[in-house]
């Protein structure tokens, strides 16, 4: 058996706010194998987004360890190298509004990967074609629909040739008729063998693409299993309760 | 962002800018929109065109072009703006007063003119002393003359005792230097200086100060003692002829008339005649043969009082004559009080009181204080309107000049005064000097140096302030406590101190310290730039901080998640967006810095305001002077704010 590409061991995370301390992650452990697609579900505030953000150290962890592609995140000297290997797609897209779709995809290639301009632009055009909007290369984010924006965001992350893709509720901010176009791109990505960790409540996507589904609540992983088993036949009461609410 | 996405997906709502209101865009907005739609090169071309137009209207280059085209040096900017002001002062006139009359203002076109005028043919007879190919020196009875040969019209030489005798006729040329004040098609009026001597009593001298000769701005410091004398205003006594709100005229003892402006008067004493009458006798007319007793205060001029009485129209009863004559007995009293008491007691029928000093209303006061004294004042005390003797004391004044003659009692001072000379333009051979005058609306060339200084200092200071603001603004959003504390300290301290104080600090504290301790000496301009930049840096830092903080955290996270370092994310993602956000406030700050740059005049820099003040202090024409300054500032800020609007519009993101 190969080494897991993401190793999460007993991770604790507390947020200190003015109103007090929130214990967001209470000893989470999770392994993700190369090429695996993991879907994390759970109620709001269960810590699933926090877990995802810890994987590329947008949040630091208080204790435990996370090893990504063999590099322990805690004290990693060049976190940017790790991040370049881990693409992330946000709920709110977070496209750079002052750059065209093409410019969004080209920027990090030039700045981080130091690619030649022509090379970066060619790659950007390829990726825009891949996500199905080759004609929008010169459009600004403000001129794109939500679904189109999210697809540009995926293309932007893919442009870095990441080994892992993290999706943080990628379809939650979208209108229903646009969800499918984004899920189709993600599905195609999963078929290509990309390692993906997806926080999402899209059961259809999970069943079609995920190797494993994880249910989180209260900062801990309650149960995990294949999507079919977890969604149709959960073993824990809390999972059942949650699924009964969203299905 | 998702907001936009939602709007798009639902239906195509009208996509208004957040600042587009219901009201249709006005002419200004449409003009700006049109300008903003032009390509960059067109906008730059427009800016250059405006600058060129301005410099054409004002610059020496334009003058040269006109001169080449028309051969008339006078057709220049002054003609375009020939308006109402007296501009400039020739440098050779020290403290002279520029004349002006009540109904005419001398319209001075500011040019120092030195004209050579062809006058007339002059004939001299004398002995030749020296001769060279270009000139001839002869001795005549009235002195030595050197005459250029090309000006000699006719000459006749004959041998005589003691040398060769020559009679020659040549064209005499004179040179007139001064300020061109008025010109018509045929004439120039030039104001030159004229020496005026004034003799006055030494008793009037309040203080006297000797000026060293090299301080006298006159180019030729002649022999003699130069003094500045503060002298007591003259006291002039005469008969009042006319009296208006602005001036009065007196007929002096020698019959001459003198006009005195009220603003020149320190004290003005009008004799006031008061007539007091015994209450009982006030109703009884005087019958011929009666004896009328009239009181007066001993020591006053009763003859003058009686003269005054004659000019009164409404004479009270005891003094009113019927036909024939009444016998008048004058009774003197040592004081006004006693005279008034006697009038009340019936000892006399009436009282005449004439005074031109502060006591002139004393009788009135006495009657007011003694209501039961049975003394009436039939007519209110009369103020003199015409024909009475008045004395006027003029204000103290100052006089600067050369002492020509001095005796024990009097002193004669020669001062310089403006003199207006009219010359024929056709006779002018050469105009030698055209010196740009002071900054005024009809002479904008004089303002150029100030405008350029103001713009130069503003641009330099703003560039430095942007740099400071960016550095401190970035420090303000750091989590590092030291950086945060340092930048916050800077911002809070600087924002709490008036800009004027900061400028004075830069000029008089920091700069001398640097010079003495570090050995760096700053020019006045650099001090001003540093002061303005530090003062504005704090505000710009806050603008940058707000701009950076207005960019959502997601932008930074997205950039970091792509592997960018913090500086890279700042440089490529956050700052470009923040700059768009802060562009309007930065533009406004630029304009307000342009205005605040007027404060640098405290560092003795000749900026636009300083030039205006100089003009005002020379001419006392505050209205014109400050109008010029205000209008020029306004033009600059209007132009710049238009540019700022255009840049703002162009930097808007498409949606």
Write out key terms for the chains shown.
heterodimer; A: 247 residues; alpha/beta; six-stranded mixed beta sheet; four-stranded antiparallel beta sheet; 9 helices; B: 655 residues; alpha+beta; 21 strands; 39% helix; disordered N terminus
Can you describe what's shown?
The complex is a heterodimer of chains A (247) and B (655). With 247 residues, chain A is an alpha/beta fold. In chain A, the strands form two sheets. Chain A has a six-stranded mixed β-sheet, with helices on both faces. Chain A has helices spanning 48-55, 79-85, 101-111, 117-130, 146-158, 176-191, 203-209, 227-232, 237-246; strands spanning 6-17, 20-32, 37-41, 63-68, 71-72, 86-89, 164-168, 195-199, 212-217, 220-225. Chain A is built from nine helices and ten strands. With 655 residues, chain B is of the alpha+beta class. In chain B, 39% of the residues lie in helices and 27% in strands. In chain B, strands 1, 2, 3, 4, 5, 6, 7, 8, 19, 20 and 21 form an eleven-stranded antiparallel β-sheet that branches. In chain B, strands 11-10-9-18-12 form a five-stranded antiparallel β-sheet, with no helix packed on it. The longest helix of chain B is centred in the last third of the chain and has 32 residues, at 445-476. The chains are: A alpha/beta (247), B alpha+beta (655). Chains A and B meet through α2, β6, α3 and α5 of A and α1, α13 and α14 of B.
């Amino acid at each position: 058996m190969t080494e897991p590409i993401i190793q999460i061991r007993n991770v604790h995370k507390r947020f200190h706010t003015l109103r007090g301390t929130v214990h967001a992650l209470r000893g989470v452990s999770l392994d993700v194998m190369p090429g695996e697609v993991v879907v994390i579900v759970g109620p709001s505030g269960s810590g699933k987004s926090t877990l995802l953000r810890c994987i590329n150290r947008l949040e630091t962890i208080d204790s435990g360890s996370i090893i990504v592609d063999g590099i322990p995140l805690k004290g990693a000297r060049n976190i940017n190298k790790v991040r370049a290997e881990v693409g992330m797609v946000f709920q709110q897209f977070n496209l750079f509004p002052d750059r065209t779709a093409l410019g969004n995809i080209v920027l990090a290639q030039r700045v981080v990967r130091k690619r030649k301009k022509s090379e970066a632009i060619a790659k950007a055009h390829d990726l825009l074609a891949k996500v199905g909007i080759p004609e929008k290369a010169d459009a600004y984010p403000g001129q794109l629909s939500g679904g189109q924006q999210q697809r540009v965001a995926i293309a932007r992350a893919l442009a870095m040739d990441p080994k892992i893709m993290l999706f943080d509720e990628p379809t939650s901010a979208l209108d229903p008729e646009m969800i499918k176009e984004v899920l189709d791109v993600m599905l195609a990505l999963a078929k290509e063998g990309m390692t993906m960790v997806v926080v999402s409540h899209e059961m259809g996507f999970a069943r079609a693409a995920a190797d494993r589904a994880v249910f989180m609540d209260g900062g801990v992983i309650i149960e995990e299993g294949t999507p079919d088993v977890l969604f149709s036949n959960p073993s824990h009461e809390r999972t059942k309760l949650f699924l009964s609410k969203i299905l | 962002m998702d907001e936009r996405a939602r709007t798009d997906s639902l239906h195509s709502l009208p996509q208004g800018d957040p600042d587009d209101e219901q009201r249709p865009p006005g002419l200004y907005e449409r003009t700006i929109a049109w300008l903003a739609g032009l390509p960059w090169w067109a906008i730059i071309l427009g800016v250059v065109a405006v600058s060129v137009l301005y410099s054409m209207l004002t610059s020496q280059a334009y003058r040269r072009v006109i001169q080449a085209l028309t051969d008339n040096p006078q057709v220049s900017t002054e003609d375009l703006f020939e308006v109402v002001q007296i501009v400039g002062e020739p440098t050779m006139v020290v403290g002279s007063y520029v004349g002006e009359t009540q109904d005419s203002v001398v319209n001075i076109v500011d040019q120092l003119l030195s004209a050579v005028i062809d006058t007339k043919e002059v004939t001299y007879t004398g002995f030749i002393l020296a001769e060279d190919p270009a000139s001839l020196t002869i001795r005549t009875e009235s002195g030595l003359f050197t005459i250029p040969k090309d000006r000699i019209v006719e000459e006749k030489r004959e041998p005589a005792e003691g040398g060769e005798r020559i009679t020659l006729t040549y064209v005499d040329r004179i040179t007139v230097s001064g300020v061109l004040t008025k010109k018509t098609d045929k004439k120039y009026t030039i104001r030159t200086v004229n020496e005026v001597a004034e003799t006055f009593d030494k008793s009037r001298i309040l203080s006297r100060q000797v000026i060293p000769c090299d301080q006298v701005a006159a180019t030729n410091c002649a022999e003699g003692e130069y003094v500045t004398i503060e002298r007591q205003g003259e006291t002039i006594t005469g008969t009042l002829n006319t009296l208006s709100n602005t001036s009065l005229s007196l007929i002096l003892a020698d019959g001459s008339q003198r006009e005195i402006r009220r603003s020149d008067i320190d004290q003005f004493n009008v004799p006031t005649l008061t007539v007091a009458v015994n209450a009982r006798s006030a109703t009884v007319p005087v019958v011929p043969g009666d004896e009328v007793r009239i009181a007066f205060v001993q020591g006053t001029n009763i003859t003058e009082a009686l003269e005054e009485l004659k000019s009164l129209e409404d004479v009270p009863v005891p003094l009113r004559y019927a036909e024939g004559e009444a016998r008048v007995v004058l009774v003197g009293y040592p004081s006004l009080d006693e005279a008034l008491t006697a009038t009340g007691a019936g000892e006399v029928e009436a009282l005449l009181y004439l005074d031109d000093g502060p006591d002139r209303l004393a009788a009135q006061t006495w009657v007011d204080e003694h209501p039961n004294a049975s003394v009436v004042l039939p007519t209110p005390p009369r103020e003199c309107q015409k024909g009475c003797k008045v004395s006027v004391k003029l204000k103290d004044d100052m006089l600067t000049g050369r002492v020509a003659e001095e005796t024990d009692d009097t002193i004669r001072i020669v001062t310089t005064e403006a003199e207006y000379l009219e010359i024929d333009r056709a006779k002018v051979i050469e105009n030698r000097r055209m010196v740009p005058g002071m900054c005024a609306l009809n002479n904008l060339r004089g303002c150029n140096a100030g405008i350029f200084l103001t713009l130069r200092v503003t641009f330099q200071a703003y560039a430095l302030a942007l740099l400071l603001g960016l550095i401190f603004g970035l420090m303000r959003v750091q989590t590092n406590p030291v950086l945060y504390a340092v930048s916050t300290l800077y911002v809070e301290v600087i924002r709490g101190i008036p800009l004027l104080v900061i400028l004075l600090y830069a000029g008089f504290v920091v700069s001398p310290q640097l010079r003495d301790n570090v050995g760096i000496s700053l020019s006045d301009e650099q001090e001003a730039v540093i002061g303005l930049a530090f003062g504005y840096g704090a505000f710009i830092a806050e603008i940058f901080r707000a701009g950076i903080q207005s960019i959502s955290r997601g932008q930074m996270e997205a950039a970091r998640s792509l592997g960018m370092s913090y500086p890279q994310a700042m440089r490529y993602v956050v700052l470009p967006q923040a700059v768009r956000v802060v562009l309007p406030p930065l533009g406004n700050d630029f304009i307000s810095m342009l205005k605040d740059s007027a404060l640098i005049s405290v560092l003795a820099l000749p900026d636009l305001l300083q030039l205006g003040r100089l003009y005002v202090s020379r001419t006392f024409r505050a209205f014109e002077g400050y109008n010029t300054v205000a209008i020029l500032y306004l033009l600059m800020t209007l132009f710049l704010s238009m540019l700022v609007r255009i840049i703002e519009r162009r930097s808007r993101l498409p949606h």
